[in-house]
Amino acid sequence: MAAVSSLSFSAIGQTSGDRKLNVSSSRHLSSNFEGFRFRTCFLHHSVGLRASTAASASVVRCMSTVTDVPPTVSETKSSFLKAYKRPIPSVYNAVLQELIVQQHLMRYKKTYSYDPVFALGLVTVYDQLMEGYPSDEDREAIFQAYINALKEEPQQYRADAQKLEEWARAQTSTSLVEFSSRDGEVEAVLKDIAERAGGKGSFSYSRFFAVGLFRLLELANATEPTVLEKLCAALNINKRSVDRDLGVYRNLLSKLVQAKELLKEYVEREKKKREEKSESPSANEAIKKCLGEYQYLS
C-alpha cells in the first residue's frame, strides 16, 4: 500500500477457534500467539452509525431494522458455522472468530447504520487478513457466510467498496480532500459523513472507518503526510484517533505475517515428511525385487 504514515497492508497467517485444524502443530502456532487477541488489538472499539435526515438520496444506507431481541453472539457464530461447514486453518479462524464477535456488537447497537467508508474498511481488513488463503473460492465463500451471519448483504459491501476504490483511483491528493466542492455519488457519501461527524447527525467513529480512509489515500496515491490531516479535517474526524488506529492495524498485520511464516514452514516440513514416507515403500519394493531376482539367478 502507499506509504502514508509508513503503513503496510501486507498480510497474514492461519486459523484456530471453534473449528479444529487438521494439522498437528496448531498447538505450537497457538502458543506463539497465546497473548494475541484480535479484540484488544484492533476491533475492541465498537461502532454505531445512524443516517441523518439531511442525507442525500444518493447515499445508500442500511439502517438496523432490529425491533425484537437481537440474536446473541453465539447465534451469529452458529449461523456462520452452518453456512460455511468446511474447516478453516487455525490462525485465520482465530482472527475471523474475533472479527465476527466484534462486528456483531457493532451491528446490533441501536445507533448502527451501514456506511460505505466503514464497508470499505471492513472489506480491506478482511481481504488483508485472509490474504494467502489456500483457495480464493473458499475465501469468498467465507466472506459471504460471515456477512450473511450478521444479517447484512455481502454483495453490498463488495459493491460499495469497489465503487469507492474506483473513485479514489481517479483522484489526486488535492481532489480527494476537496470532495465538498463537487457533485457525485461518492462525494455525496463523504459530504453526509462530514455533516454527521460535524454534529448535524449521529456519527460514531470506528477503526474500520479509519482503515477505509487510509484505503482511499492509498488508491489516490496520496503519500504526502499532510493529506490525511486535510481529509480528516474535511470530514470532521479526529486525526489522532485515525493515526492511533492505523498504528494498531499495522501491528496486527505484522503479527499475522509472522504467523503466516510459521504456517508456511510447518506445511513445508509436513510435505517433506510425506514425501520421505512415500519414497520409503518404493525403496523397499525395489530392494525386495532385487533380492528376488538375485535368489532366482542363484
Describe the structure.
This protein has helices spanning 26-32, 38-43, 73-83, 90-107, 116-129, 136-149, 154-169, 173-177, 185-200, 207-219, 225-235, 239-297. It has 298 residues and is an all-alpha fold. Residues 1-41 and 43-66 have low confidence and may be disordered.
Descriptors for this entry?
about 0% strand, mainly alpha, disordered N terminus, about 300 residues
Low-pLDDT segments, ≥5 res: 1-41, 43-66
Structural class, by secondary structure, is: mainly alpha
Which word captures the global form? globular
Rounded to an integer in angstroms, the radius of gyration calculated over CA atoms is: 24 Å
Taken in chain order, the helices and strands follow as HHHHHHHHHHHH
Look at the structure and give the mean pLDDT: 76
Distance between the termini: 72 Å
Helicity level: 55-70%
Number of helices: 12
What's the count of strands? 0
User: What fraction of the residues are assigned to beta strands by DSSP?
Assistant: under 5%
Q: Biggest sheet: strands, sense, closure?
A: none
Describe this structure in a few short sentences.
This protein has 298 residues and is mostly helical.
